[in-house]
């Protein structure tokens, strides 16, 4: 039952009841069928709107889920699985189920503020988005963790000790009719939520025994040219050369007959050429990011050998696979769509771009030499090449003046790849272009593993192969090297077992 009575409606914009380059979580979300969820039963928690104001005590409803089938009371651990930059429609049935069985764990998952049904406002104006940040999201997680673990008859005073008091009637201790048990917590996340997982352990080490940061993009990057370079490495020489040829043909045709070219790709609505070029670049990248490289490279290299029209071959791939199978909407790349502020089921695009434009950037640009993506989409001005400032122009056009990513501030706050945390496992897939924004070198108390195989991409350790569509329980049998996945998973289990046992030995929920 929702705690509607506890909501503070201090503004006519506050929401009482709502319905729900391309972000990782939203693609995965589109490709998970209802049968592949451990649970879709919605629960609700009253969350503080602004954790950093001593004066603003407004709250909003935040959606969460729990899965207790494998929980072994009273001392079983609690796995906090983080949702990222999309609507969170349940707890996906990936490898976390295997881990929950092994450790006798409860699994809970909190929807990220603003996404899905957890929006504080009816209108997503730039002004109303000022509470959308990773810092606020981390404090959300801390508040929820305390709420869910609350001891029987314990009163929680808001999210940070301020504001209206409420009874934690949905806490695990209350449900199990116990009064003083403090379980061991472990945090999980993939991609942006993987970064949140690492950052949560960094900022709230007293609330968790450790975290798994899968494909965790902990480094905010302004000019992310390594992304394109990894696509070239993952593609291999033959496929890379064909993709580069396709890009040249696209640029030529765009200059001579852009309208017909966009129609060929089913992207007539993308009036801004930069939006169209970004759409085509993402369509190629996604094959390597999610473990389906042959779906892209095989038809293109075959078309090249047969002397067929490469633009037509690529258009077939984009329409049949990227838009068709993945279900990516062309309007995701349309800046007119991104400017819409009305709350609806497709607002995640605008929300994620706001986070990109204010905190992390990850601006995917062409390297100076040997690029695959078009160099016409860039953040830089070269003396020998006039490049439009696509990303910054997008941020300004969609959100207004003064909106740009504070990359240095983000890395200063979290540490980037020099994160000074402990008991965090970092994992990455060898073919994943996002791994260059992750921590790929091991350090004391923070092991880092790269899973190497032909189709090991984003979140392989939890999702198996391919990474999309979801394979139940993260089955790794379709990975080109299942043993490589199993080896890293065993290393994860060993770290978890050590850190959880250390927590239990001290009688605390953290180490």
Automatic annotation (TrEMBL):
GO terms for cellular component: vacuole. GO terms for molecular function: dipeptidyl-peptidase activity; serine-type exopeptidase activity. GO terms for biological process: proteolysis. Keywords: Glycoprotein, Hydrolase, Protease, Signal. Residues 1-21 form the signal peptide. SUPFAM superfamilies: alpha/beta-Hydrolases (SSF53474). Belongs to the peptidase S28 family. PANTHER family: PROTEASE S28 PRO-X CARBOXYPEPTIDASE-RELATED, THYMUS-SPECIFIC SERINE PROTEASE. This is Serine protease EDA2.
């Amino acid at each position: 039952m929702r705690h509607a009575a506890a909501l503070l409606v201090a503004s006519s914009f506050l929401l009482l009841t709502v319905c729900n380059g391309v972000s990782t979580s939203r693609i995965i979300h589109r490709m998970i069928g209802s049968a592949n969820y451990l649970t879709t039963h919605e629960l609700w928690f009253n969350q503080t709107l602004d954790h950093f104001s001593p004066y603003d005590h407004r709250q909003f409803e935040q959606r969460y889920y729990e899965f207790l089938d494998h929980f072994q009371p009273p001392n079983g651990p609690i796995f906090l699985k983080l949702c990222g930059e999309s609507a969170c429609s349940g707890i996906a049935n990936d490898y976390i189920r295997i881990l929950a069985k092994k450790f006798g764990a409860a699994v809970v998952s909190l929807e990220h503020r603003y996404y899905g049904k957890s929006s504080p406002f009816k209108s997503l104006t730039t002004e109303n988005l000022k509470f959308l940040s990773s810092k606020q999201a981390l404090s959300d997680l801390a508040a929820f963790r305390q709420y869910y673990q609350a001891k029987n008859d314990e009163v929680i005073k808001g999210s940070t000790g301020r504001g209206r008091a409420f009874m934690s009637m949905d806490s695990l201790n209350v449900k199990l009719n116990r009064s003083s048990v403090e379980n061991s917590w472990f945090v999980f996340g993939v991609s942006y939520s993987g970064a949140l997982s690492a950052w949560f352990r960094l900022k709230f080490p007293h609330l968790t025994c450790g975290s798994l940061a899968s494909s965790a993009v902990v480094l905010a990057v302004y000019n992310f040219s390594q992304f394109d370079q990894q696509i070239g490495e993952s593609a291999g020489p033959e496929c890379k050369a064909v993709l580069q040829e396709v890009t040249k043909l696209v640029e030529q045709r765009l200059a001579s007959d852009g309208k017909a070219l966009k129609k060929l790709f089913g992207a007539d609505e993308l009036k801004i050429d930069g939006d169209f070029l970004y759409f085509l670049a993402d369509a190629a990248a996604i094959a390597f990011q999610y473990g389906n490289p042959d779906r892209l490279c095989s038809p293109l290299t075959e078309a090249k050998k047969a002397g067929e029209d490469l633009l037509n071959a690529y258009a077939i791939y984009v329409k049949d696979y990227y838009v068709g199978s993945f279900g990516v909407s062309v309007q995701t790349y349309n800046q007119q769509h991104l400017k819409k502020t009305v709350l609806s089921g497709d607002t995640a695009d605008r929300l994620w771009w706001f986070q990109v434009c204010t905190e992390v950037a990850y601006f995917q640009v062409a390297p100076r030499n040997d690029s695959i993506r078009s160099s016409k989409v860039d953040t830089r001005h070269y003396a020998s090449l006039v490049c439009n400032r696509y990303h910054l122009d997008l941020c300004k056009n969609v959100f207004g003046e003064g909106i740009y990513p504070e990359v240095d501030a983000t890395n200063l706050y979290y540490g980037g790849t020099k994160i000074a945390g402990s008991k965090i496992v970092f994992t990455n897939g060898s073919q994943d272009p996002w791994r260059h924004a992750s921590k790929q070198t091991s350090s004391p108390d923070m092991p880092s593993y790269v899973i190497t195989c032909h189709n090991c991409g984003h979140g392989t350790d939890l999702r198996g192969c391919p990474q999309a569509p979801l394979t139940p329980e993260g089955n790794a049998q379709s990975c080109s090297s299942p043993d490589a996945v199993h080896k890293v998973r065993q290393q994860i289990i060993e770290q978890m077992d050590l850190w959880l046992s250390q927590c239990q030995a001290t009688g605390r929920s953290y180490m």
